[in-house]
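Predict the 3D structure for this chain.
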Amino acid sequence: MQKIPRRARRTKIIATLGPASSDEAMIETLFRAGADVFRLNFSHGSHEDHAARLAAIRNVEKRLGRPIGVLADVQGPKLRIGRFQAGRVQLQPGSPFRLDLNPTPGNVSRVNLPHPEIIEAVRIGSSLLLDDGKLRLRVEKVRADHLETTVVTGGPLSDRKGVNVPDAALAIPALTAKDRADLEFVLPLGIEYIGLSFVQRPEDVEETKRIADGRAWVMCKLEKPQAVENLEAIVAASDCVMVARGDLGVELPAEEVPILQKRIVALCRQQGRPVVVATQMLESMIASPAPTRAEASDVATAVYDGADAVMLSAESAAGQYPREAVIMMDRIVTRVEQDPGWRALVEARRPAPDANNADAITAAARQVAHTVEAAAIVTFSATGSTTLRCARERPEPPVLGATPRLETARRMAVIWGVHAVRTTDVHSMTEMVARACHLASAEGFAKLGDTIVVTAGTPFGTPGGTNSLRIAQLT
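Done. Predicted structure below.
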């Protein structure tokens, strides 16, 4: 088998699997093309489908000798209207429209809303968005079992279309019974990240972390305006974050989304949380072998903003050109990172280190690596915390993340600039430096005469507490 060369870029790529990319050969093709993490979308497919895809990923991982991250993205609550007698209606602007708890099929004047939580949460003047925001209703009256609304933006409306409530917090948990069953199924199989939808408060994240119990990182998907109001606390509670711009763009004005994207990415970098920018990045490549120029600029903007990873959704899951989409995203990211302006932005946005030993060591490692023109920074970490801190510094040389734990190596797949490798435990500083030199050479980071910088926490084998820094030369 052809050896997978190490990625030339720092920003990672997540590819969603689906009907267009389910077999092992295609999964290997996408990994070779540049995908670092694969997403299993539990909004679609059966447990058997996802188990087969996960098994295929692990076969590719074993065959190619590279750790691969897997994101299990659970569906979350889906708020939908009921059905219509004729299957669809045409709502006219200015006309009244009732949403009620009556399950009888609706007509042009009313429809079932099987979510009493919405009726309890909204107020007079609240907006309701239907069908991904295509239609807008204004609440005029709130009753115990129904809402009287006026159609603000009309149009066709058919059965089971989605409902968004942008200006009210809903008393609905982020995890549904389906989500809990999906997690109970997939966590024992071994995944690296849980994609958590419908987050409104930090308690939503904490509940999922209790269920995960350390078996996976919780990737909080920011898609609700209420999450933005609790942004700092939610990011702090999360292991990693996704800017889910599709749903976010439904409930917020379109002009707010780019500004919020930059704010979230900056906050995640400050707090040391990996952050993914997702949704509609190369949307036209679902049916076209090339993206629009606007889409290429969109991917580039996420890289300039400082995202750890960018994600493909339907482009790789159901599109006609999954391989081409990954290759195109790889090309755009790689080209941006060759721009001196990109590196200048990276340097300008570096957060100040926190007042602790670990941040002091990793900040020093970056500076030392720059001064001695190191070929790589090698981090030793059982949990990945040392490597994550190093990535937060956005150093110029690549980061070789060495760990004795396969699950940690896989989790590092989403972290900016990190090339993860599994190795055996080290027991002394001398052994650590020797191992770092060997790995840097074997993985293609350094050659004889090159200098590397090595960081770790001591005593060895004890998680936490980055406190050691060494400079070594390959001899």
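DSSP finds 17 helices and 21 strands in the chain.
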